Amino acid sequence: MTGLDGARDQFGRRIEYLRISVTDRCNFRCLYCMPPEGLTWLPKSDILSYEEIADVVQQLAPLGLRRVRITGGEPTIRPDLVRLVAMLRAVPAVEDIALSTNGVRMRELAGPLHEAGLDRVNMSADSLRPERIARIARRDLGFDPVVAALAAERVGLAPIKINVVVMRGINDDEIEDFARLTERNPWHVRFIELMPVGDMRALTWEHVVASDEVLDRIGRLGALTPTAGPARGNGPAAYYRLAGAAGTIGVITPMTHTYCASCNRVRLTADGRLRTCLFGDHEVDLRTPLRAGEPLAPRFHDALANKPREHELLQMRVGGLRALSQVGG
Ligand code: SAM
Ligand code: SF4
Questions:
Q1: Longest dimension (CA), the chain
Q2: Is the pLDDT at 1 greater than 50, yes or no?
């Protein structure tokens, strides 16, 4: 299981990518992710320190870990995130460090994060209209996602990926506007199918828009051809390009197509549990052995031996699934 070939799970998938949640808290309350009043936050003492997170990464690196993504909750609201990035950059085996963010603090943090060793960012943006951004995020923080993406691009955090969760009747009239962003900007705009997880009080299955419909609509703007995705960080998205466009359009289809067969990732929750699938309860506690000074490799191998073949959304067993902010979505 170890060695140059890296760690493999019970189905032979090579696991080289860790998504690290640094907080379950957020400065937004997106309709599809959190209720307006927030969630029951983890106590601070349960949350891994930056030193503990770096320790996990150092111990998993010899087992084949090559890429990490910092996520949450909203990672940029945890104080001194720049320090964590520098600590992860110091692990020689880690080839790629990415950040998932809502972009609110991008203008002030892009430079320091890049200097500390961050390679690139994925930004969430569900609307380009200020009043609608505030309505979907249930917070009016007066920020502009395009300005935030430009700030990240300016300091060299590339490629820029922009994630749009499409919701019928809420933002699906902006699909074309988002697609047009790729005409001039070398950005990768990815449309994500809404997943019925966490607190969906505000949304129902009727808000789900299948990616095939998204592509049909964009195809009416001009010729849309399949293309290779960004050079780095190819995940579950399928990519297309509008004729002559600088950037690409991606679709991520958790609801209508499975990409579990090529899954290469596991997740570390903010309180130190290793989750082998975004959905379901497949997780192993790493915090207890970490704080007891015990090696993590046996736990990692146990976790991989139980990584499920595919996620349970496909079987429509969705009851009780937690919000993505709680599992490092
Ligand atoms: N706060 C950061 C952000 O919003 O990018 C990182 C964490 S957020 C949980 C990670 C991604 O999950 C975002 O792109 C968000 O849009 C997506 N997400 C959260 N809940 C979702 C849902 N119910 N369906 C589809 N995507 C969801
Ligand atoms: Fe916060 Fe991201 Fe969830 Fe929105 S999707 S509430 S920004 S964690």
A1: 59
A2: no
